[in-house]
Amino acid sequence: MFDNLSRSMEKAMRLIGKDGTLTAENMKEPLKEVRRALLEADVSLPVVRRFVKRVEERALGTKVIQGVTPDVQFVKVVSSELIELMGGGVGAKELEPGFPQIILMAGLQGVGKTTAAGKLALHLQRSKKSCLLVATDVYRPAAIDQLVKLGAAIDVPVFEMGTQVNPVEIAKRGVEEGRRLGVDAVIVDTAGRLQVDEDMMGELRAIKAAVRPSDTLLVVDAMTGQEAAGLVRAFNEAVDITGAILTKMDGDSRGGAALSVREVSGKPIKFVGVGERMEALEPFYPERMASRILGMGDMLTLYEKAEASIKEEDAQRTVERLMEEKFDFNDFLAQWKTMNNMGGMQMLKMMPGFNKITEKQLYEAEKQFAVYESMISAMDEEERTNPEVLIKSMSRRRRVAQDSGNSEAEVTKLMAAYTAMKSQVGGMSKLLKLQKAGTDPAKAAQ
Ligand code: GDP
Ligand code: MG
């Protein structure tokens, strides 16, 4: 797909060379290479400009890690910025939680909405979630047939009311039907148009208001070139999307649209379509995509090895904190965030003993954590780092409740959760101390 970028990066590395450091001067030509390659891949010009600027700023701002040559450093910065541009973080973005999850499909005609609706249903079904598909494209009779056939092929029920009923009404009834059936997810397919127009946006807005979806996914054809940015902006402004699905990635498109989605809307690509079959849907991993684009796996491994030794120092600091038995609300939140980043509660589901957890319980648990987070954000620095003051002061607890829009009972619950986690951490720190005493007597004696 991005062959040119990969080749340009090699050229850029030669231009920078292995001596010295990265400077505005020696990056000038290499940055031009990156810029040209991105434009050739149909990435929109404003997106390219911002990207190149960020790479330059970041490359000048980062300190060079020992044992890494400037050319490798440059590749690393481009790679990190690419990952950031496509959504950042680790792993793929999940669908938003909900009970039921309600997923609204949006996008122009022919981009692959109906196909993607079927693919998502199969994907959810494979993770043991039941689905209902809802057909609201009343403008072409064949569109309803298409969804009915897809549903039959993957054994997912399809709700339709023919072509004589208003799409908003169908969507609303469809979701009601989903609730009645007790399905885990309702996927609402919609009609597209050849171009962005007010009719389509109006209808989408009305459907969205009627069904209040947990996800509104913009389906984008990977072949969309320069227009991708404008398209994403129009849909995002009209219906505030939660993410995108990039279809037809199996084709020979240059795929520049992949880079525009996040930059323009701030929303992640959640899935990619890689064929016409129902199985041809993959989660979108920004990191994998970036290394595919750059095709420079070895370089990055080298860099990561150098970086790992620095990360070790960070880990050491965490251990030291544990040893001192410090555990405040910042730690509480960090602990939870780590869990959440790893797929959070969904991970729990795969652990023995937890696999009886229902979707609803998972959803409730995720909501609970969101409440905790809102209360912790409402604390001042002293309360966050020294929870004792909150335990002692009723008026502080009341203020936190008020400022975060929660009840005092919720704050009490948070204090209990904090105390429970702290005692667990206390146990861990004792274990660490024992371990350290056993393996490293000289240090333990200090
Ligand atoms: P809609 O108008 O947005 O609902 O688009 P459809 O779902 O009807 O898809 C339009 C055409 O694109 C169909 O022929 C699909 O088979 C095809 N299509 C959809 N997704 C993909 C994909 O990921 N790869 C390929 N090669 N074709 C796709
Ligand atoms: Mg369709």
UniProtKB/TrEMBL annotation:
The keyword Ubl conjugation does not apply. It catalyses: GTP + H2O = GDP + phosphate + H(+). One of its GO terms (biological process) is SRP-dependent cotranslational protein targeting to membrane. It comes from the Eukaryota. Residues 268-281 form the SRP54-type proteins GTP-binding domain. GO terms for cellular component: signal recognition particle, endoplasmic reticulum targeting. Its EC number is 3.6.5.4. GO terms for molecular function: 7S RNA binding; GTP binding; GTPase activity. Keywords: GTP-binding, Hydrolase, Nucleotide-binding, Ribonucleoprotein, RNA-binding, Signal recognition particle. It is an enzyme of class 3 (hydrolase). Belongs to the GTP-binding SRP family. SRP54 subfamily. This is signal-recognition-particle GTPase. It comes from Astrephomene gubernaculifera. The lineage of its organism: Eukaryota, Viridiplantae, Chlorophyta, core chlorophytes, Chlorophyceae.
